[in-house]
Amino acid sequence: MTKRPAAFWTAILVVLSCAQPALAETKLRWSLQAEDWVETATAEVSVAVSVSDKTTEAASNAAYGLVDRLRAETRADWRVIARHGATGEDRSGLHSWTLEVMARIDVRDYQNVERAVGALSVPGRNARVSRTNMMPSLAETEAAREKVRAAMIGRAEAQAKALGATLVSVDFDPQTPASPPQPLARVMHAEMAMAADGGGPRTGSMKIVETALIEALKP
Fold first, then answer.
1. pLDDT at residue 18, rounded to an integer
2. HEC states along the chain?
């Protein structure tokens, strides 16, 4: 895996000391920005399950049965995120039921998931991987963001000390956006296949950028 560059820092200092009394404190304000990468070796995978049977109840039970098999064979926490049952018969006189389930898995388990999904498909029963997303989870993103913010606070304290000032506040901008995830979706399947074949874990990445307004007082 290519080593990511260290966090990038920028700072702009503004001194507010116009016509203040000799003993008054000088208020210093500057902005600080840092960026870093969130990386994950997991993927959010969706599987679509479709079943046709003689009754809607039979189709529904069979669809949920396939999901239970998928849970057992992959040991992943598959959650139902969408369901649809036809109210009438199709042209063949059967009723259908469709489920979409989602789980976050280790990319090294991806081929095992594909095999398990493929094994579910028989006449009247169909399962397929419908979507794969390697964007880091919210927990991973927030952990990385907290790490970047802690480093920014430490840098702000060092800058204030170098200026002979006392740090008063560090206000982070809640509107700072994160960049789109990398790599692109069209290479995800190949990346995960390589990881499953023993080529080493592959990761999805997302760049985060934090901006803060720093305030300090100088005697």
1. 47
2. CCCCCCCEEEEEEEEECCCCCCCCCEEEEEEEEEEEEEEECEEEEEEEEEEEECCHHHHHHHHHHHHHHHHHHHCCCCEEEEEEECCCCCCCCCEEEEEEEEEEEEHHHHHHHHHHHHHCCECCEEEEEEEEECCCCHHHHHHHHHHHHHHHHHHHHHHHHHCCCEEEEEEECCCCCECCCECCHHHHHHHHHHHHCCCCCCCEEEEEEEEEEEEEEEC
